[in-house]
Amino acid sequence: MEAAAASTSQARGWSSLPTDVLVLILGNLRWSSHPSVALVCRHWRYAASLCPFYPAWITPLLLNTAEVGTANIRYYSPYYDKNFKVDDTLKVPSAKICCSTGRHLKMRADKSLVFDIDLVSGALVEVLPQKPFMLFNFVVSDRDERLFGIRAMFTIEIACAIRTNGDEWEDWNLAENSPDWSQLRASPGTNPVLHNSLLYLLAQDGRLAVYDLCRHHEGFKILDKPNSFGFKCEDSYLLESNQGELMVVAIERRGKKVHLVKLNEQSMEWEKVDSLHSQTVFTRSLTTMMKKTKFNRMQNMIFLPRFYQWPETVHVDLVARDGELAFVPKLPFCADTYLDTCGTNIWSYELAHGAATKEFWGTERADYSIWVDFGDN
Fold it and tell me: What is d(CA 11, CA 16) in angstroms, rounded to the nearest whole number?
């Protein structure tokens, strides 16, 4: 009798725990452990589906709003092909997005101010220094230690502000030198990029201007090389690769072809890159980034914020728990969050095969959008 009871107890084991008990256990585990729990057996997988969440760190997200400063925040995930709508607003009416660093978003308002917003709490963290009598086209943040404001119309001007040891910002310091804009027409959609402690500004034809903070009074200097990309493109976006190389995503008209080139800093010429290997590029916003991914269907891809149809919207809270961020649906939501999705509605280009996943025609751009990376803290 005792042997039979022991055998029955052993047979039941962990896999037969009541669903409500499993849900309570899952509620006390880190979100990143849930996929492993779901792989144990069908019963545990079902319990995991009753605790739905979508990791916010899994890939970069496209933050977009219908109207900057007033509408609710939406994050598009190219992995899940869903929009996650958060009730918080950007709370800065009439402000325009500048740049992002991790969970922090910089926005520029009409009253000559730059705001720093915490995207997780929704709080307005601080108001950064007023502008020095000029209208910035670009704002670049260096890990919140330095701030650069660039004007690239008619002249190329730059101002910098530095955070002091007392955690306050110095006043803007405007550089003296201002090259003629006609000498180098900045690519209108690409932010200047910090690379090896220098700030690079990309021209429409592939030429570069460079700024050295140690020689601040000189402002931007236009380089003799590189001369151009060697081909025509409609849009071009500058980024620094994971290997510390200066690269450009160059897009022909209507996405007919997408080129990736890197700067050979010995010869100062652009060289073609044929493969991203296990990496992914997210571009065509004021933030262009390259990220390593473990998802095969996203490797060697370039994603642009253009959609064939508006993705499904899930109303969520953006929740921080044990150092992890996740989108948690507001209403009971039974969905299998662990299955890899088959396809997306976002336009993408596979660099290795030199072709888009779908035709560019019929896509619609997401206005007021920027790629943000909650995995970059």
Answer: 9
Q: Which of 189, 212, 215 shows the shortest CA–CA distance to 202?
A: 189
DSSP 8-state assignment for residue 315: E
Domain ranges of the chain: 1-51, 129-224
Nearest to 286 by CA among 129, 107, 114, 134: 107
CA 280 to chain centre: 11
* Region of residue 347 (left: phi > 0; alpha: psi -120 to 50; beta: else): beta
Do residues 32 and 324 make contact, with C-beta atoms less than 8 angstroms apart?
A: yes
pLDDT tens digits, 67-122: 655 567 889 999 999 999 988 777 777 778 888 888 888 888 765 677 888 888 87
Q: In the chain, pLDDT over 70 holds for what percent of residues? A: 88
Give kind and range of the element (H or E) at residue 25.
helix 19-26
Exposed e or buried b per residue across 141-161, where buried means at least 16 C-beta atoms within 10 angstroms of its C-beta:
bbebebbbbbbbeeebbbbbb
Q: Tokens 């029955």 appear where? A: 8
Phi, psi of 150 (to 5 degrees): -125, 135
Q: Is the pLDDT of residue 267 over 90?
A: yes
71, amino acid identity = A
For 76, counting Cβ atoms within 10 Å of its Cβ (0-12 exposed, 13-18 middle, 19+ buried), the class is buried
Name, in order, each residue with C-beta under 8 angstroms of 68's C-beta and a sequence gap of 6 or more.
Answer: 90, 94, 95, 96, 97, 107, 368
Q: With contact defined as beta carbons under 8 Å apart, do 54 and 80 qualify?
A: yes
